[in-house]
Amino acid sequence: MRPRPIQHCNHCGAPVEHRVPEGDTHLRAVCPACGHVQYENPRNIVGTVPVWEGRVLLCKRAIEPRHGLWTLPAGFMELHETTEQGALRETQEEAGVDVELDGLYCVVNVKPVSQVYLLYRARMLQPTWSPGPETLEARLFSPSEVPWEQLAFRTVGETLRRFFAEQQTGHYNLQVFDID
């Protein structure tokens, strides 16, 4: 599931060549006309694990991919924002809930699609929410109530399994894992 390779220079529009530039170690899109090197980097996904009285708020997706399946409130980080700002923005946009961040909870490397998830533990300030246009509904779930077979992404399932296991101990460690 690799994205289509870069075909044209984003500076001058000329067709690019794919080669390893001098002094580099990776294949890059290099413009033979102006010399510009275009780098492709992973995309950051930021969001939260919002909790109220031990239950986690999940959102049912109103958009593709995975329309109609459940996920944590998260999305692409925007330019000029911190990971914390992005996580708060995405939580507000998707779930319409005010939260207070309790620290970075997990970093997930999703290598097949070149994404990095940064999810924060978050305390809901009130048990109220108002889902935005990207969410069909939002609901609180205890571990036994989570619709495990209806989760949108493997990252969400693995994050929730780890979170609920640690929730029982009351001690949370930074989780770092890969999804291949």
Automatic annotation (TrEMBL):
Keywords: Hydrolase, Magnesium
InterPro entries recorded: Nudix_hydrolase (IPR020476), NUDIX_hydrolase-like_dom_sf (IPR015797), NUDIX_hydrolase_CS (IPR020084), NUDIX_hydrolase_dom (IPR000086), Nudix_N (IPR029401)
Pfam families reported in the protein's UniProt record: NUDIX, Zn_ribbon_Nudix
One MF term in the entry's GO annotations: hydrolase activity
Swiss-Prot/TrEMBL cofactor(s): Mg(2+)
Stretches assigned to the Nudix hydrolase domain: 41-164
Name by which UniProt lists this protein: Putative NTP pyrophosphohydrolase
